[in-house]
Design goal:
Elements: E1 19-30, E2 36-47, E3 51-55, H1 62-69, E4 77-88, E5 92-95, H2 101-107, E6 112-115, H3 129-140, H4 146-159, H5 176-188, E7 194-198, H6 206-223, E8 226-231, H7 234-240, E9 243-248, E10 251-257, H8 258-263, H9 268-275, H10 278-281, H11 293-298
Parallel strand pairs: 3-8, 3-9, 6-7, 7-8
Antiparallel strand pairs: 1-2, 1-4, 4-5, 9-10
Helix pairs in contact: 3-4, 4-5
Bound molecules: adenosine-5'-diphosphate and magnesium ion.
Residues 62-63, 117, 198 line the site of magnesium ion.
């Protein structure tokens, strides 16, 4: 008789699943007197390392979708139906809709982080940048030694283009662009697999906005996290996204590569949206990622 032995763990770690997040038939309703279905039957897949742009006019449901994915929606918003699955590289599939409060707390920031609309005003005014970055590490990486926390906070800050001397600063001592970079550093600190950015640069002037976007693309190239980048600014999305989803009145009406959305839009609303930006119908501006992926074909 032979004994069955457990197979030895493979020498090479298994490759992580190519898709990191799947949203299936998600519907989110604001249960007010006249209920508003802000997200209608939305399905999408986010590939590992991909930048997915989400575009659509104000009020179409972008923020509601982002909050629901991170389970940050609050009453009167409720998820009426659908599934959200996170394909974790270590723990396999996580059904986000069934995570308990403690599991959610561990999940957020660690595996999926979010930079909110107006996040730069979310920094605590009475503690230093260092204290706020180290706080995230104390909570999520309790095993880390103080010196390691200090070093990691400083190096992530540098990664987003802020000098480590700024660790000692308070929010009011920083420009808007710098504050937003600090928020991005916080979102990157635990090396999440997905980062959702909801209009992260809208409040900034155009030059600072460009610099930060260039930084995000560079960091993605370096760290390979996936991004859902939300904005009403379609020209900007064409520059930085691998794929773009077009949202209209709660529905995703078209989702395709940035090149196809630009060159060969299918839905009438996508065509209308493209037509509403004069810069897109004339000469194309220079692209942030010139020579990379679809941008090369677009320019
Ligand atoms: N707390 C709320 N109660 C009722 N309706 C809401 C609430 N928040 C948002 N909505 C509605 O949900 C829709 C989508 O809003 P939102 O997700 O903020 O859109 P976007 O981010 O694309 O501008 C809008 O029609 C908005 O009026
Ligand atoms: Mg919004």
């Amino acid at each position: 008789m032979t004994l069955t032995v457990n197979p030895a763990s493979p020498a090479v770690p298994p490759t992580p699943p190519p898709v990191v997040l799947t949203v299936q038939n998600l519907t989110v309703v604001y249960e007010v007197e006249r209920p508003v279905t802000a997200v209608k039957n939305v399905s999408l897949e986010l590939a590992r390392g991909e930048i997915l742009g989400l575009a659509g006019e104000s009020g179409c449901g972008k923020t509601t979708l982002a909050y629901a994915i991170n389970r940050l929606h609050k009453p009167p918003a409720s998820i009426a139906s659908g599934e959200i699955t996170f394909h974790d590289k270590a723990d396999g599939d996580l059904n986000l809709l069934t995570l308990g409060a403690e599991q959610l707390r561990m999940f957020r920031w660690d595996k999926l982080s979010m930079v909110f609309q107006g996040a730069m005003n979310a920094l605590n005014p009475v503690t230093t940048v260092r204290a706020q970055l180290e706080d995230v590490l104390t909570t999520h990486r309790p095993e880390m030694k103080k010196a390691e926390r200090r070093e990691l906070a400083a190096s992530v800050l540098q990664l987003v283009g802020v000098d480590r001397s700024r660790l000692a600063s308070y929010a009011h001592e920083l420009s808007g662009g710098m504050r937003q970079r600090v928020m991005i550093a916080m979102a990157l600190l635990l090396e999440p697999q997905v980062m959702i950015m909801d209009e992260p640069t809208t409040a900034l002037d155009v030059v600072v906005q460009r610099e930060i976007l260039r930084e995000i693309v560079r960091l993605r190239d370096e760290l390979n996290f996936a991004v859902i980048f939300i904005t009403h600014d379609l020209p900007l999305l064409l520059e930085i996204s691998d794929r773009i989803a077009i949202m209209l009145a709660g529905e995703i009406v078209e989702i395709d590569t940035a090149t196809n959305i630009y060159r060969n839009p299918q839905h009438p609303y996508t065509k209308k949206l493209l037509g509403s930006f004069p810069s897109l119908t004339g000469e194309r501006g220079s692209f942030i990622r010139s020579g990379v992926n679809n941008s090369a074909e677009l320019s």
